[in-house]
Amino acid sequence: MKKAYIVRLSDILDQIQSYLPGADTRLVEKAYVYAARAHAGQVRRSGEPYLSHPLSVAYILSQMKLDIPTIAAGLLHDTVEDTNVTIDEIRHLFGDTVADIVDGVTKISHLPVKSKVHKQAENFRKMLLAMAEDLRVILVKLADRLHNMRTLEFMPEHKRQRIARETLEIYAPLASRLGIDWLKRELEDLSFMYLYPEDYRRLREEVEKVVAARQDFIEEVKSIISQKLKEEGIEGRVLGRRKHLYSIFRKLQRNNLSIDQLYLIYDIIGLRVIVKQIKECYQVLGIVHSLWKPIPGRFKDYINLPKPNMYQSLHTTVIGPGGRQMEIQIRTEDMDRVANEGIAAHWLYKEDKIISASSVKNGQLDWLARLVELQKELQNPRDFIESLRMDLFPEEVYVFTPQGDIKVLPRGSTPIDFAYAIHTEVGHHCARAKVNGRLVPLDYELQTGDIVEIVTSSQQKPSRDWLKFVKTSRAKSRIKQWLKQEEKQRIFAAGREILDREFRKVKLTLSAFLDDERAEEIARSFSFKDVDELIIAVGYGKITPQQLVRRYLLEQKKDEKDIEAEEKEILQRKRKYHQRGPETVSVEGTKDVLFHLSKCCKPLPGDEVVGYITRGRGITIHRADCPNLENLDPDRLIDIKWETGDGASYTARIWVITVDRKGMLASISGAISATEANILEAELKTTQDKKALFNFVVEVSNKAHLDRIMNNLRQIEGVIRVERRFA
Ligand code: MN
Q: How many CB atoms within 10 Å of residue 581?
């Protein structure tokens, strides 16, 4: 790259005179002197004196035809950043407008930009717009960036890459958004050159070839249109126009084409017809369409429907001479200026033929509509600039995490909103907040550009007071949720205490109640989901503790009754089994002596029995053939008479040995039941020789009853043996 021409003050002043003839430029001259002194001795990487940079920036701003304070600010834009100069001094010497612009530019350069900026590029752009209260801040920043990009070759490689990427992702779109087309194109092509040098070089060569090849064709069409304009009496210019390299590159990418397939892109070069009046645009369109066949679907009327950045034009693509496609753009001089200069075009031109009120009406222009409205209210075009307080995104603030992540929050948001935006737990435990390194109250209103740091503490809990100032619905709902949960816990604890007190009055405890499986049932009987809900209801006073305790006592009593009844029944059954009902034992004429049955031989009424006089436990009845009798004192053996009445029952054990086959148990138990005997125990074993042994304890009224059972069993097919067991 050739050594850049160093801009001199006179270049700037001359440029200003060209669009502001007779303007008072003393502020610019003063700014020049001041900047020269402030930057004295500083040198750029290029080896040039540092002052060359602010001079170039100011010159770019004058090329954008901006006002005097903006150009002065361009000269001063790096003084606060890079020298000992303070903003107060600038304010004192150059006034609020210049100082505010310089301050805005300085703030932007202090923003922490992450290396992975592309993720948040859109937010960043929005933030820049929102931050610059005055659009001129952005314009100075863009001019600054343009000059830095033009001199990027002097930067070390890694910085080049970062700066070029940032330019492509933030500043070029910003220029586009503001409608400054020439700036966008130059920023994009410079970025493209540094980011993809090889693609850039090859594409440039190829495009040159295409342009050279089509030159004659373009000239032919140009002269045809010019001739027609003359015939129709329309004053206008016909220009050749070329797409800039990066937009061709993007178009190739979008269509998955390689650079070798460049010939497939028909609109690398095209024509632009520029006329005086809007109605002439449509006249020219008619002429073009009468000359060549338009391609359907390619006609765009951006005059009636301008782009959001104010761009207005007619676009059409026709099949030109030789069957070659060609795009033609038709617009007025005003529209052409806006297309190139965008928002900057408004700085100096009052006559507003550029945007009609009707085009603003249908919301197509969103934020610009508001600017235009504002502009209409002002008589003096200069006031337009002065009053152009940026109100593009009034509902949002853009703040940073200490790591450089951008969070977008509604205007009026506080550190608590920010904390909840990061994470619910960070919100819950947000104890303190630092903004730009300084502690701020938790209800501090966040400003765009703030770097916010949240200090959490495990002790900290959400407070009801927070609800008074948080802005985001996320924070609100999280806090409410937490408070509700916390209240529940508090009420729960209160409910427990109340209940425990009440239970103790009736010599019970709450924990005994909670351990009781009936507790859940009782909760449900009060229509609560579980015991916890029941306790919470007591805490809230929805039911009284007395109500609950009473219900519990009632349940207990009911259960006690049930238990009593059950026990009674069991006892009765026991009696039935063991007390043998109305029976007597007589000994030598003495009736009703105390007796019990021996365990060793399980005598049944009907068995031949003898009595044995025990010491203190009455008489034990043994079967006469009980083997144990041999071990007993013969002197104590006595004859007895054992009489039984109806309903008495005794237990006897029998073994049934059968072949092992299915259904045997059913047959056996059927046979037993047929005699109206109860089976008290049943056990089945399979023996080693594949036989089944059933071990039963049955309830019978006497020996005859048992004999009947045993006979029945012996009738069953497969039963091998039936025997009475005595133990
Ligand atoms: Mn700078």
A: 13
Euclidean distance between CA atoms 219 and 97, whole angstroms: 49
Q: What's the CA-to-centroid distance between 144 and ligand 1, angstroms?
A: 5
pLDDT of residue 112: 64
Pairwise CA distance, residues 569 & 389, whole Å = 95
User: Which of the residues 11, 29, 48, 82 is marked catalytic?
Assistant: 82
pTM value? Answer: 0.55
Judge contact between 129 and 393, C-beta under 8 A: yes
Distance CA 585, CA 596 (A): 10
Taking only the tens place, the pLDDT of each residue in 146-169 is: 999 999 998 898 889 989 988 988
Q: Identify whether the C-beta of residue 492 lies closer than 8 Å to the C-beta of residue 478.
A: no
Share of the chain above pLDDT 90, in %: 28
pLDDT average, residue stretch 110-122: 57
Question: Token pair for residue 295?
Answer: 């391609």
DSSP notation for 545-583:
HHHHHHHHHHHHHHHHHHHHHHHHHHHHHHIIIII-SSE
User: Which pLDDT band holds residue 378 (cuts at 50, 70, 90)?
Assistant: very low
Average pLDDT for 208-217: 87
The DSSP secondary-structure symbol of 118 reads: G
Euclidean distance between CA atoms 373 and 363, whole angstroms: 12
Is 82 annotated in the active site?
Answer: yes
Task: For tokens 């609100």, name the residue.
Answer: 476
Inter-residue contact 595 to 619 (CB < 8 Å): yes
CB count within 10 Å of CB 227 equals 11
Amino acid identity of 525? S
Distance 110 CA to ligand 1 centre (A): 12
481 CB contacts (<8 Å, ≥6 apart)? none
Q: How far apart are the first and last CA of the chain?
A: 119
- How many angstroms is it from 528 CA to the middle of ligand 1? 70
User: Is 646 considered catalytic here?
Assistant: no
What token pair was written down for 710?
A: 């045993």
Give 154 Cα–ligand 1 centroid separation in angstroms: 15
Cα–Cα–Cα angle for 298, 299, 304, rounded to 5 degrees: 145
In this predicted model, what pLDDT tens digit does every residue of 460-500 receive, in sequence order?
A: 999 999 999 999 888 998 999 899 888 888 888 888 888 88
Nearest CA to 329 out of 290, 275, 277 is that of: 275
CA distance 446 to 145: 28
Q: Name the packing angle between helices 197-232 and 278-291 (round to 10°).
A: 100
The sheet that has 691-700: what strands, in order across it? 678-686, 691-700, 650-659, 719-725
Which residues on neighbouring strands pair with residue 240, listed in sequence order?
Answer: 271
Q: How would you class 645 by CB atoms within 10 Å of its CB: exposed for 0-12, middle for 13-18, buried for 19 or more?
A: exposed
What b-and-e string marks burial along 104-118, b requiring 16 or more CB atoms within 10 Å of the CB? bbbbbeebebeeebe
368 pLDDT band, cuts 50/70/90, is very low
Q: Distance from the CA of 54 to the center of ligand 1, in angstroms?
A: 6
Catalytic: which of 24, 81, 521, 564?
Answer: 81
3 state DSSP class of 426: helix
CB 129 within 8 A of CB 366: no
Single-letter residue type at 78: D
Alpha-carbon separation of residue 314 from 87, 346, 704 (angstroms): 47, 21, 122
Tokens of 129: 């717009």
Q: How confident is the model at residue 587 (pLDDT cuts 50, 70, 90)?
A: low
Name, in order, each residue with C-beta under 8 angstroms of 427's C-beta and a sequence gap of 6 or more: 416, 419, 420, 462, 475, 478, 479
